[in-house]
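The record is given unchanged here:
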Amino acid sequence: MNQLRPMARWLRPLLLFWVVTVAASACSSGTTAQTPANSAASPSTTVSQAGSNTSGPMATESTVGLSTGTTSGPSSLPKYDGPESKFLGEVPTPAMKPGTRFKVGFLQVNGAVGNLRAVEQAADAAVGKLGGSMVALDAQLNPQTQISQFQQLISQKVDAIIVLPAVDSSLEPSLKQAKDAGIPVFTYGLPVDKSKPADPFVTTSINVGFDYAAYSVMKDIATKRPGSTFAILGSALPVPTLQYIDSQVKSWGIRMGLKFLDEADALTDDTNGYGPAANSILTRHPDVTNLVAFNDESAVFAATQATQRGNSTVQISCINGGEDIARQAITGGRMYSDYFMRWSDLGTSLANAAYTTVTSQGTLPAAIVLKSTVVTKANVGEARSWAK
């Protein structure tokens, strides 16, 4: 895939996690939502570089996992009732059942990507602790390879399959075959918008919660700096999840009483892209109070740009984080906050969900969204990175 750069270093977790869904063709379009999502009017977005921004579902939530704070903040901020609200939770740790056959097939979409590798490694470790074994196959972004590998696992009669589809719709026939064969399938990351209906052939989908992340970060900002301004450093690459995150950040910020100024989208996922986008915002809005970036690398780069300009007013936040570079930037005061995604816990949860189902220890919901925490300098010492 031309947009994917060589992976000599761990690539940006969210970007590549979702680039895989458009690797071979456009993602399949979403179906009608189960229930209408809350919405609110918001001003049109100014995009300074190529890219688009559309308003997503509006939402609200409790302060679980947030650094709550100060008496100077708003007396009442919205509680979370967004599309992920009914799915927030954890997968219970199943009881061991000695003598149970537990062979899991893990369809890796691209093991060269750091956060995807972390999911696989954690799942493998959890399966082993449960007395089972895991067969991992890597499609390396090729949907046809993934279909073939799925068929291999069905032929091997594994007890459960864990998969992130390379392209959303490509595995539907295979998913149906697995269900007909009595093999439960567990997916992660899809659909990103939890107002979309669940796939009828998937037992449970477990996600890291991008809407809840946007809500949590923007609520924390509104608590500490009520009524302040914000801008978004997004990505222009045609990745639905990135566009969804940006729209949720904007919507939640406005809902929290913050003032949206601008969005500039990086044309590439490197410093050549981050630089013009960050400079565009900082030049046009030198007094912007908050800059929210789409990944850790872009956030850290924006922080460096602000420092070089002598801008000590703007604070930098990130929605999709958890890498050590962000921890260091927060510790050093260059970044204000980050939402640490629980990629390793996701792998453990997928394995536990599979064992729970295989051993008939209860029926899991169609979707589960793992909550995490907004990390600031006050709690960065307690934060755990997914990068190992």
